Every structure is written in structure tokens, then in C-alpha cells.
Amino acid sequence: MSAPATIRSVPTTTSAPARRARALDWRVRFAVLSVIWGFSFLLIKVGTEGYAPFHVALGRVLSGALALLGVMLVRREPLPRGRRTWAHLTVSALLLNTAPFSLFAFAEQSIPSGLAGICNATSPLWGMALSLVALSEDRPTRRRFAGLGLGFLGVLTVLGAWQGFSGVDATGAALALLASLCYPVGWIYVRRTLAGTPGSPVAMTGAQLMVSTLQLLLVSALFTPAPAGFPLWPTLAVATLGALGTGMALQMQYGLVAEVGPTTAQMVTYFVPVIATTAGVLVLGEQLHWNTPVGAAVILAGAALTQARPSSGAERA
Question: Can you state the angle between helices 99-107 and 113-120, rounded to 10 degrees?
């Protein structure tokens, strides 16, 4: 997800054998990736019906870590080394996994899964706003400034600002928006501290998820009673959320980046809220008002503008 609340790792070069090993057309993998990440918010909602939010996040990172460790064992890839690397992974795990996964789980106790998916789509808007002070090479153009304003208008539309935000739990929406903010903050940190660190994307992300698992074990032990049982559907939902959304989907994302480039691969972000909203309505029976799809479309249009790269000689804002 974050990106939706998708898990990425430090960019590295993907090997030629890995590229040749891809059997499915990239469009098929793109569609499957969109569905997996789009359904993630439905799975979070189902998970919260049987588990506390911290336990949902814990099960997610644990199953994701196990999936990636399995891949590493098959490939015989080692974990990253060095105290400095693991110290930075501790921070990136907090920003990219522990905090946003927990916040989304808390948010979906009071807001529809579709709304959570739409809030997740604001990550590029937060990223552009943060680039004003954090990454000078990403200073925005006037077009990207317009995208930020358009995205903000979309958020107000989704939340029904003209009617005093009635019908939307303000706390839940705020938690989901805060979760989406965690992703660009985390990636700015990763770019400044872990870019170029030796290790494959799978190894770096697997290590990060291991650290996040330890963080959530500690937090859960301190603030959440142990679960009284393990209900079937919530348990399956959480396990699927981690294993597919972190394991299988991660491999697909790396393959897409290597084959069609990061610009095309990141377009999956724009399909996630559509699928999340549709799944929430059709599977969970969530209500859909006109302002939700309209606002989502405005958010996605704004996000697309913020990701637009300036042409040569374009005037800077």
C-alpha cells in the first residue's frame, strides 16, 4: 500500500536473471498488485473485528516478515550487517510500518475501509509538501503547487467540509491521514540514511519488518491485553494482509520497477483507492455518498500533478 500503505525498500538494481524469470505480462502483474493493495484496507477492517489495532499491525508485519524471510532462504540472501544500518532500519520500521499500520488499524475502527484507502492516496500530496523543506532537488513547480491545492480540496470534499464533516468520524479520518503522512516522512529518512546501503531490497525490507515486529510486540505487551482467542476470519485476514501485501506484492513491485520503470509502476497508487472503495461497498456493505468518489477523483488528480516532472526550462515556483 503506501505507499498505500505499501512496503518498499531501498532502491537497488534488479538482476537480469530476475527480469528474465518473469512469466506474466507486466499488465497482468500490475492489475494483481492493484487488487492486492486495494483489498488491504478491507482486510484491515476484517482484522479489527477480532483483534485490537496493535495486534492487527503485529500480525501484519510478522506474516510479512516470515514471507520475505522465506524468499531470502530460497535465494540464500543474508540479512544486512552493521550497527549503523540496523539503527536506521529501526527508525524506518517505525515510520514506514509500525506507526502507519497501527494508525490505519485504529482509524478503521470508526471509518469505512474505502475512506481509509482514499486517505492513503494523499501520501504523494504530503510528500510534495515535505519536499519544500526536506529535499531541495524535488522543489515543486507551479503545476505541482496546484496539485497540492487540488488534493487538499479533494480531501475536504471526501470529508464533507461544507456540511461540517457530519457523517465522518473526525478522529478516525485524522488518524488515517496521519498514517499517510508517515510514508513520505519515512522515505525522506530512508533516502538520507540508507540509500546505497549494501543488501537486496528483499533483505532490507525483511530486516525492517523484523524490527517492526519487535517494536509492535513491545507496544502490544505494554498497552493491549493478549487476545482471548484467534477467530478464523480476522486471523486469515491479518495473515493474508501481511503475506500477500508484503510478500507477494513486494516481489511484483520490484519486477514492475525493473521492467517498466518506477514512473509507470507507481501508477498503481491511483488504482488502490478505487479498488478499496469498491471492495468496501460490495463486500462489507459500506455506504457510498456522491462526495466520496468525486473527492477521491480530485485527490488523485492532485496527486498526479504533484508527481509531474518539469520539462526542461520549466519555470520554478
Answer: 140
CA atoms within 13 A on the CB side of 306: 26
8 A C-beta contact, residue 306 and residue 144: yes
How far is Cα of residue 97 from the mean position of the Cα atoms in its chain? Answer: 9
**What is the chain's length?**
317
Residues 6 or more apart in contact with residue 105 via CB below 8 angstroms = 44, 47, 48, 53, 54, 56, 57
Cα-Cα-Cα-Cα torsion 91, 95, 98, 102, nearest 10 degrees, comes to 160
- The list of the chain residues with pLDDT below 70 reads 1-24, 132-140, 162, 164-166, 258, 261-266, 307-317
Q: Provide the grid cell at 289.
A: 455518498
Residues 130/272, Cβ–Cβ less than 8 Å: no
- Dihedrals phi, psi of 10, to nearest 5 degrees: -60, 130
The predicted-structure confidence for 129-179, as pLDDT tens digits, reads as follows: 887 666 555 566 777 778 878 888 888 888 877 676 667 898 999 999 999
CA R_g for the chain: 19
Alpha carbon of 210 to those of 95, 194, 206: distances in Å? 14, 17, 6
